[in-house]
């Protein structure tokens, strides 16, 4: 049975959040402390990677102290029944956190300040230090859980997303070439498809950074670094492909380019070969077609009515070269 069967039911991050919440509440209750502030801190401390949890925890702790301090100060001055106590506590907490570059902890600090005010009464020092202690418990517990329990592995997500990207970008290139050759040039659908590709590629970049951070914080076999480098190389190649593809998508409206019969056949051969990569797993070269397009573009004046045609052929040849290197 697959060791990761639980991921089909509930995500690892959700499991770790639940475990961190339980442990935090257990520790606080054992110490006779109100667990709500510690739990709040623990929940927001569970990040996609252990590095992110530790890095943001460094800023959330002082931000929480700031929120607790302002709630105590303004409750002491104005009492806990004044709306100004809440308004000023929130305002000054946000201002100071912003000035100290503690943005990631601002929300938790403000919520802590607001939740503290009704229960402070006259136990100012006790409430301040107890909130500080519970915040530390929440941060430490969540950080350890995220570091030790179920270290995230994004390889499967990356494989799926990268494969999905390649399938879509090859299909979009083929469809765009057909539109140019048939003279049925449209913008709407290709624009949407290209935006989907850009969003998907951004997601891949984020997952790659998560996995890179995770590997740097844990001891892993060299094979995992090799696998990550391979996925990174694929992603970078795809990003370069999409950059040139976007130059073929973002063409002037109602573009009309006249190609010779030989040029049309050469473009169609390359487009079909690229469209079949996802199915066959390899790139079939059409060197004669590429050479014909190179010869054709050399004979064009880039500054007359053939400027657009020259641009299109250049982009096709650049994409051909990218894939030629990738599947070398």
UniProtKB/TrEMBL annotation:
Pfam families: ArAE_1. Belongs to the UPF0421 family. The chain crosses the membrane at residues 20-46, 58-78, 84-102, 123-149. The keyword Transferase does not apply. This is Aromatic acid exporter family protein. The lineage of its organism: Bacteria, Bacillati, Bacillota, Bacilli, Bacillales. It is a multi-pass membrane protein. It comes from Staphylococcus casei. It is found in: Cell membrane. Its main location: membrane. The keyword Repeat does not apply. It comes from the Bacteria. Keywords: Cell membrane, Membrane, Transmembrane, Transmembrane helix.
